[in-house]
Amino acid sequence: MIRELHQKLVTGETTATALAEEYLRRIEENDGSIGAYLTVMREDALSNARLVDEQLKRGETIDILAGIPGALKDNICVAGVRATAGSKILDNYIAPYDATVVEKLRALRGTILGKTNMDEFAMGSSTESSAYQKTKNPFDGERVPGGSSGGSAAAVAALEAVWALGSDTGGSIRQPAAFCGLVGLKPTYGRVSRYGLMAMASSLDQIGPFGTSVEDVAIVFSRIAGHDTMDATTAEGGFGKRFEEYLTGDIRGVKIGVPKEYFSENLDSQVRDFANEALKRFQELGAEVVEISLPHSRYALPVYYILMPAEVSSNLARFDGIKYGLRINDDKDSLSQTNSLLETYLDTRRIGFGNEVKRRIMLGTYALSAGYYDAYYRKAQKVRALIRKDFEEAFEKVDVIFSPTTPGPAFRFGEKSEDPLEMYLSDIYTVTANLAGIPAISFPIGTMKEGSASLPLGGQLQGKWFDEETLLRVADAYERKTASAG
Amino acid sequence: MLSQDEVKHIALLARVGVRDEEVEKYQKDLSAVLDFFRELEELDTENVALIDHSAEATNVARTDMMANDTKVTKEALLSNVPETRNGFVKVKSVF
Fold first, then answer.
1. Is some CB atom of chain B closer than 8 A to the CB atom of A383?
2. Is A73 a catalytic site residue?
3. Domains detected in chain B
4. CA-CA distance, A166 to A85, in Å (whole number)?
5. Which terminus of chain A has a smaller tally of CB atoms within 10 A, N or C?
6. ipTM beyond cut 0.95
7. Whether A94 and B83 lie within 8 Å, measured CB to CB
8. Do A322 and B13 touch (CB under 8 A)?
9. pLDDT tens digits along A37-51
10. Model pTM score
């Protein structure tokens, strides 16, 4: 879609201003029923579009993403624009600087339409934990869009943005992409700068793109990736060609691993059928399907739900009512009644944070506390090493690893929000990539009927460290084949 | 199962105020997740080396010079502070 729109801009068939206006109109007309956006950056979008149009008028070459309207998850900072991360504790927070990804997008004049809804501080798999609003799945208004980047996914799926950025700590890009029929990429840890992304779990977080095609995702990804002196975990060195240039459609000889642990008898039979169909299609394209084993994958969820809250408890210590955001100074219902600094902390965090955030902060605090550190945190770090080793061994035999993205399609509002553990289990296929630090992509592999609703399903490919190009090439070849098969 | 006193202790360590009527709910929720962690106990990790990070990065240090970063202004930072006085952040007394 991006390439077509770019062509229209270059040939003068449309203007960047007209594009921005069209998408702003769609947001105005439709977003009341979708709820994807928390903040619409109308003036910003239009003034950027005017700059692109002036460049075009002067006959200058513009980047393929210039003037193409997109959206940002609300935990990514844009200077001078409200950034809540879906939390009441940041209700009045204005970001004082641009995230590195925003700086990069601004430099090539991508149009930014606004900031999207999300689970509070990216903690959740349904966007229901946002303190502000529900976001509906554009395929069925009674269902969640997935999460935590649910607003970004819904915005693109509802055609209220061409592309969007999300963040993925345990599946928060891939799962909503799967639920909303989109392509979503979690890059290798260290591929995209996290500077200006509100930290959730620093050893797991990555920013990545959503789009309606693999090529769109590759185009956006190429433009946000790279080393950044402001994020010491970003990898040195460039990546040669732009990622969209690797999309040849040719995947002959590519070895696709199928972990037997992911296809156990517990897997829903419909989801299994779709996954097997996808594998057949890969074979028709000349790829080789190989059964592999990831013996420690069954421990991934408990490891994730120890390490992630531990990092959360540390990262969210900064929200204390002192430096920014909400401050509760004299709550008449205060529990401590000491009128001290401690009271400010306790009251601000009790009132400012939602339940899921408080649960995870407390879990993490417990896992790191004296006497439990070895049993939980240290143990989980060791199992994380074993999970990483599973992948190292698997990637000696195969190029990519295929699985469903989620155990099922989008679920209904309230279906899992009462039981935290039930919600956590929906991350079963996605958390491993974050623990191992490898890249992973979700792309549509079919539509499942549930009653009167047609719900998209996603397939996931996990790849070698810093080998996004193979992931994108394989997913793109699949997409072309599906398009030609009708 | 965590005791109610343990829940209150964790909440205080985490600087999260918890109301008496919420303690039971947290007790139940946190204990369920902690039980789920038990699965790891069956694994022998005695000889597994620790990793802290999925990235194979080494520490990066900047030169010891004052950063002339004018992108983030003092005004922009202070405008987000709930209470200030004379350009300082105002807080309650510690005790």
1. yes
2. yes
3. 4-42 (1.10.20)
4. 11
5. C
6. no
7. no
8. no
9. 999 999 999 999 999
10. 0.96
